[in-house]
Design brief:
24 strands, eight-stranded antiparallel beta sheet, 2 domains, alpha/beta, binds zinc ion, about 450 residues, nine-stranded mixed beta sheet
Length: about 450
């Protein structure tokens, strides 16, 4: 059931985390700037997504944005990860140029495109490589104005994308989403848009979202649900919309709304946070923090609000590597020790469902959560349908005046069709007489559907 591509490792390397260096202020004022000078890690925000497919030594690489220092940082990464391809003709291994297969551009600000001409010249020196550059038409138009030296031949490497559409570049699926990213003054001509990219490969979802303030409200929120990795750009800690970017404070809400358990933040400068120092009542950070201080501040906030460590935010550093955790193999699931009487399952599109058996009292508790609502439901006498162990019933609690709602859950496995992942559906119906309390299908992967079936069989067979 698990397709071969899902067993290939997927790596994300953070090539750089900085905004335009001028936005960091001077080192006497900003501890963050002093840190940058000290560590000499000066690359603009960028990342590479690698997927090593079967036969070739060289993994497929998607590079996102190409500001200052990115090419050098990316090449260091390729070398350190042992991904360099070498000339086979020579007895000595001479590394050849390692260009990305795809370059995704978010928007044409200089901290995201500065080294584009350099990359193009490397690509034309190395004709064997095929580079594809994806960005919106608006972004391409501005790039051609900023870099008039780009040749007609190089322009052919661009493929313009329409936000909201889905692009398959095997083995990846790429969806650009339109966002607002104002620069300093929203009324000025510098106001602009930007895209974030949702990149999917096998069952993994990676969202690359830096340099934006807000997302078009018409965009289907399901697209953002439950990413394996979310990368967000946060210019400041406190809310400063005039930067055109999110703040760390806003990410606390966003990670819950999207159920993003693993979030990296980049593009922090913190310079605008000095403004809060003027307010003697302000209790948050009032300076540009070092990465370590920023991490500590975030950790202590999440300790209070992070749902017992469910959500994690990492202040990303240049050279950091994120590795996708392999999905559990199906065979292992059957050996898995399921003694606990609580099971938590995450839907593929929305919903986190938690099912619990309260042993002594013959009670079943269910919590269903989506980005907006949380249903806490309690039933009595849970039991499996004696003819079909895919169906679970439970009765309503007896209250003072009336009986609580009843429950029916049906678990369906669907067979995979044309290369799609096999899916399961948990059909939940909570009703009171003819009225519905909660009725919806939770789409899950088959492994989770099977886990739930084993859980109900084990706990509720009467
Ligand atoms: Zn930027």
């Amino acid at each position: 059931m698990v397709t071969s591509s899902s067993t290939q490792p997927i790596l994300v390397r953070i090539n750089g985390v900085l905004p335009e260096i001028s936005k960091l202020g001077n080192e006497n004022e900003s501890e963050r700037m002093a840190e940058v000078k000290r560590t000499e890690l000066t690359t603009n925000t960028s990342c590479s997504i690698f997927n090593k497919t079967g036969t070739t030594d060289k993994p497929f690489q998607i590079l996102v944005d190409i500001g200052e220092g990115v090419i050098n940082s990316m090449e260091n990464g390729i070398r350190d990860l042992g991904f360099g391809s070498y000339s086979k003709l020579s007895c000595v291994n001479i590394p050849t140029v390692n260009l990305p297969d795809i370059l995704l551009l978010t928007h044409p600000h200089i901290d995201h495109i500065k080294e584009l001409p350099l990359l193009l010249s490397k690509a034309s020196d190395n004709r064997s490589t095929k580079l594809k550059i994806m960005c919106t038409q608006r972004c391409l138009n501005q790039i051609m104005r900023i870099f008039p030296q780009i040749s007609a031949a190089d322009k052919m490497l661009f493929e313009t994308v329409t936000p909201g559409e889905n692009y398959i570049v095997s083995p990846f699926s790429i969806t650009p989403i339109l966002t607002m990213h104002y620069n300093n003054d929203r009324s000025s001509s510098s106001s602009s848009d930007s895209v974030i990219y949702i990149v999917r490969i096998s069952d993994k979802k990676i969202i690359i979202g830096w340099d934006f303030l807000s997302i078009d409200p018409n965009v289907d929120q399901k697209l953002f649900w439950n990413p394996d990795l979310l990368i967000l750009g946060t210019e400041t800690y406190n809310h400063h919309p005039e930067t055109g970017m999110l703040s760390v404070t806003e990410t606390y809400d966003l990670i819950r709304r999207w159920n993003a358990k693993n979030c990296y933040i980049v593009h922090y400068s913190g310079l605008k946070d000095f403004e809060e120092a003027k307010n003697q009542w302000f209790r948050g950070p009032t300076k540009a923090m070092t990465s370590e201080e920023l991490q500590k501040t975030i950790d202590s906030h999440l300790q209070i609000t992070g749902n017992n460590g469910k959500f994690k935010i990492t202040v990303a550093k240049e050279g950091m590597i994120w590795k996708a955790v392999e999905q559990q193999k199906e065979e292992e699931v059957y050996d898995e020790n399921m003694t606990g009487s609580v099971l938590e399952i995450e839907g593929l599109q929305k919903y986190v469902m938690r099912i619990e058996k309260v042993e002594e009292e013959n009670i079943l508790k269910i919590t269903i959560e989506d980005s907006i609502n949380r249903y806490n439901l309690k039933f009595i006498k849970p039991r499996i349908d004696h003819e079909n162990n895919n169906i679970l019933y439970a009765d309503g609690e007896k209250g003072m005046l009336a009986k609580g709602p009843e429950l029916k859950i049906k678990i369906d496995d669907l067979q995979p069709s044309n290369g799609e992942f096999s899916q399961g559906i948990i059909r939940i119906d909570v009703f009171k007489g003819k009225g519905k309390v909660f009725k919806d299908d939770i789409h899950v992967n088959t492994i989770d559907a099977q886990k739930l079936r084993r859980f109900v069989v084990k706990n509720f067979t009467v």
